[in-house]
Amino acid sequence: MKELSALSLQQKTIKALGVNTKDAKISLSYLSVAFATLLIGGILGLVQGLQRAGLLELPPWLNYYQVLTAHGILLLLVFSTTFTIGYQYANLSHSLGGLLPKVRKLAWSGFSLMIIGVILVVTMIVLNEASVLYTFYPPLAAHPIFYVGLVFVVLGILACCFGVFINYRHWRKTHPGQTTPLLAFFAMGVFVLWFFASIGVTIEVLTLIPWSMGIVETTNVMVDRTLFWWFGHTLVNIWYLVATSAWYVIVPKIIGGRHFNEKLIRLVVILLVILNIPGGFHHQIIDPAISESIKFLHVFMSLSIAVPSLMTAFAMFAVFERAGRKKGGKGLLGWITKLPWGDVRFLAPMIAMISFIPGGAGGIVNTSNQMNQVIHNTMWVVGHFHVTVGMSVVMTFFGICYWLIPYLTKRKLTPQMNRLGVIQTIIWTVGMILMAGSQHLVGLLGDPRRTSFTTYGDHPRALSWIPYEYVMGIGASLLLLGVIIQVYAVINMMFFAPKGETTFPVAEPEDNALPAPMWTERWGLWSVLLLMVVAMAYVVPIVDMIVNAPPGSPPIKTW
Amino acid sequence: MHRLEEMWIAISSGILVIFMIIVGYQTFALGMGPPSNKEIIDPQKVDQTAPFDEPGITKIGENEYEVVMTLQTFGFNPNNIEIPAGAEVHFIMTSKDVTHGFQIAGTNINAMVMPGHIQRISHTFDKPGEYLVLCNEYCGTGHQLMSTTIVVK
């Protein structure tokens, strides 16, 4: 009891003092890497968009696929990962009353490991030794150092996973009978999922290292591909879970409302964690070597995460309506006008959430057997993940910056900066609608993804795609402008904004809310259920791919 | 939980079930399942293994053809195929090197063709015209050049 009150006293001091400086340094370091990466990745995105439309010729020392590999790895892997860790560790530090010293050490080790890894990977891409795109499907073989770099990145992620687990366990032990704060619960969901997601790609990369060095002669390309998507698609949903943590817990506070029923929120997190990994299989719907009946099971398993997503849609709109009505919104839709549309901390995540409606619908198309065959590996897919990742996730991340960074640096969000943020949000939204919209349309007409500018010998069908590619180029230009404004805003809020107090916006439950049920904290059980779902999806096809494997493939360099 | 929440969850799950019934019906009753062939081959001995030792087009029935095709950076063999309108064509494909994608723009033909695996997909070409066949999985520096045509007369 004594320990408890001492701890709560400690927590109160932290709350009174605001941010823990040592923890803030961790988050700020991760965020700095994130936005430096965003700038480089964004520039590469525009280069690629213009090349694709035939508007820009690359110099002979640079090829399109090199640029594409770097764009994918820097944004999908490095930007999203470093932002997530910076933000989630801030959440953890805030809601658990500071990080433990050993957790801080783990976060710093993770940081160093990731930096080493990224330098190795990027060097190989720049040297044109790894133009294998971010999926690095064997038997395309990159330089062994590329894979070694990836191992370092994964080790960095794992260090951060263990940091979260240790801090969570410590808090639970010192707070018997209490449920963890909601943001810490989300962090557990994110890192538990990340831990299990990493297993697939770790096994893959570890087998590819000796293969690319020539120690092992051949590799099983189907197994590698399956293990990649075990990780690759789960990663997408990790970002999505990170974004939903802000939707459920932060956004309600910003609009002056309360968060939704905590039991439902926790249930959504648990379902997203348990059901997620088999979703990777829908990237392989038109692959050989997996039977139709197994694919049918995968369609069901991939689609099952639509249920928690629809629950999120319900909960969020309920929160908005309640907050809007409390502020005097009348009639069926009057509450919409009462929402703070001029506040970037609301506007950016709100557009992110709205874009999840077409994003999710597109995802259902991609996940289902026959429709997948229409759009697989066409520009549609590129449009799809620019809506889901580039809008739903990234705009939420951008919105988070406008309170998180001033909070961490003990500065203030000025009205000017807010206005710039609103402009940035509008530019980004228009850019994405133009780019992703035309990608969706031209994809339906058959334009393939991951292909540099080509007219296929002036084939009329290929020529008909070019106008859409111009629109993509215009969208990409607006997006780079958006990136530049965002990076400027981040630098300003890190170093130049006026000093002041920024609060960490965490929503409270409704007054009559029931306490969160204790059973939701059973992470051991959720992990077992996750593994059971993984076993259901993976054991039969992977055993089949290994037992009935063809002779393997040697490493091949085709660039 | 609130009554409206329960209804919403019930409706969401219900939609999922209906969706799966439709997808299942199309896949198993109408034979519209995705290409999922399970035959295997030694990817380093494609040229010596039947039927890929003789890639080409064979007439196997009344306006029905079989195309045995190998894919390799950066081309299709055979290429520039010609068939009469209304022909049903069965493609049997494998890769001699890396992973390729076989797509015929403007049709629903889309399949991954991977080394070590034999992929099969069929299509009836009702409309005459020059169809663009392309590789839709990145396969190397010349990936954007990897294309051919199917002329339907």
Task: For the structure shown, list the relevant keywords.
heterodimer; A: 559 residues; mainly alpha; Cytochrome C Oxidase, Chain A; 17 helices; 0% strand; globular; disordered N terminus; B: 153 residues; alpha+beta; Immunoglobulin-like; 2 domains; five-stranded mixed beta sheet; 1 helix; 10 strands
Structural notes for this entry:
The complex is a heterodimer of chains A (559) and B (153). Chain A has one domain (17-547): Cytochrome C Oxidase, Chain A, CATH 1.20.210. In chain A, 73% of the residues lie in helices and 0% in strands. Chain A has helices at 2-17, 21-52, 64-95, 101-126, 144-174, 182-213, 221-254, 262-275, 292-303, 306-326, 334-337, 344-367, 369-375, 379-409, 415-444, 460-496, 523-547. In chain A, helix 2 (21-52) packs antiparallel against helix 3 and helix 3 (64-95) crosses helix 14. The radius of gyration of chain A is 23 Å and the shape is globular. In chain B, strands 1, 2, 3, 5 and 8 form a five-stranded mixed β-sheet that branches. In chain B, strands 4-10-9-6-7 form a five-stranded mixed β-sheet, with no helix packed on it. Chain B has two domains: 1-33; 46-152, Immunoglobulin-like (Sandwich), CATH 2.60.40. The longest helix of chain B has 27 residues, at 3-29. The termini of chain B are far apart. Chain B is elongated. Classes of the chains: A mainly alpha (559), B alpha+beta (153).
